[in-house]
Prior knowledge:
alpha/beta; Rossmann fold; Serine Threonine Protein Phosphatase 5, Tetratricopeptide repeat
Amino acid sequence: xxxxxxxxDVSWPLAVALVLLLPLAMGAALAWQQRRRTARLAxxxxxxxxxxxxxxxxxxxxxxxxxxxxxxxxxxxLVGPRWGTHEALESRRGLDIAVALDASLSxxxxxxxxxxxxxxxxxxxxxxxxxxxxxxxxIAFAGRSYILSPLTxxxxxxxxxxxxxxxxxxxxxxxxxxxxxRQGIELLGASxxxxxxxxxxxxxxxxxxxxxxxxxxxxxxxxxxxxxxxxGFGSLEGSTIPEVFGNTVREKRxxxxxxxxxxxxxxxxxxxxxxxxxxxISSDVTDRAGRVRAAFASLRTERRTVSAREDHxxxxxxxxxxxxLLLLLDTWIATRPRAGRVGRQPARVASxxxxxxxxxxxxLVATGLLGGCTRPPDPALRLEQGDALGAVSAYxxxxxTGDTSYELRYNLATALLxxxxxxxxxxxxxxxxxxxxxxxxxxxxxxxxLARLLEARxxxxxxxxxxxxxxxxxxxxxLGERYDDVDGKWNYELxxxxxxxxxxxxxxxxxxxxxxxxxxxxxxxxxxxxxxAEALLNSAARDERxxxxxxxxxxxxxxxxxxxxx
Length: 566
């Protein structure tokens, strides 16, 4: 459980006093009622005589405790306590959005608090939170632009790239809006789906390039049917740029030694929006994320299945239900026939209210018992117990009732995979993967890749090659979103090393004819354990970053005119 999942919240903070007032009021009312009844009975007989006749106080200590506890639980429920998180799959409508973020040095200026860059990140988070069904791509730009994240609905990946965004994450100083817009067009042009596309460029507008280039790039976005929204950050008065050197922070200076003052320049941003028939949002707008969302109002959305997380879930039922049960228990105790101490008490005639309360109690208990007895076995439990065929039958029965949700179809495909029905499972996985997004699609990719991998290891020739290639593509896409998943890395490593099947379903073999005689766990057989596979993939990722860094240094272009590298 995450730290924010255990914070306690309440819906009505001012009603917290009810937690104390209601039990006190209930106790006081019961004590007052008991004194009145005792006083009335004292008019007719002594206390000892009343005890022999079987008369009881209005409220015993047990009843006072029960009703006081009922009042306390009801008060807590009324406050509306909230804690924990809840995740579920929901069907929502969303867009495809590429967000280009200015990561140049000028965005470190503090004329917006805490800085232009941090304020820009806040607006992106608010834009994301307003519609979690959108697929978002992150582009960082300065003198050049770089795609940090493809179109994805993965909250963790988006937050990771936002958190690490800084001037150090781009390879060239300066600001180039034209290149960024063109790269955003290419990225959105490769997207699949029926949703409309939008490109949001967030910058202080301080770019040193011809306005004609920016307008030409923006016009190309309009031709591709992409809505261009430009958002400004900073102030017209400007601010200095802090630079950190070890433990020292000082103001940035230009080549002549003068302190650099960076200013918000709306001209290029507004010109780009005008050329693309888009929307320009100035830096003086308070709710910039809201204005961006309003600009999307006319765009066509697409229905998607997304993983919806609810923080601080309402938990009032945890207190209201025990209070109701205690109240029913108290009613039953108060209305049940009692055996007198002297002779035999006459039968007690139940009133209509007593009958209704007793009937409600019986119905509640019977419903709980019957529900537990008639509830069909959980298909997921059958699958966990190893009854794959039983789970398949149970999931098929649910489908036959009309439930065709993607979650159920995914579960059916998983059960088919466990039952070794690879062909049917693969077809069902593929249909779910193409129609869903978010967590369901990620899990579907993993299991479909496993099905392809099993198919490849059981087949041979071109069929095995195609299955291995499909498994590699699926796990590559899966690890692109969940790069720290050890099982995904392990299966990806298996898909990278296609080998002919051997006895017992294990791998083995190599180009050397003698290698097949080696045991499967021998390092020479090409089989890696989990730790080795993870080390290999991490090493490959480091090599890729080194190569990209070298390419950036080799292709680094001279700074913008006048040596302006901010």
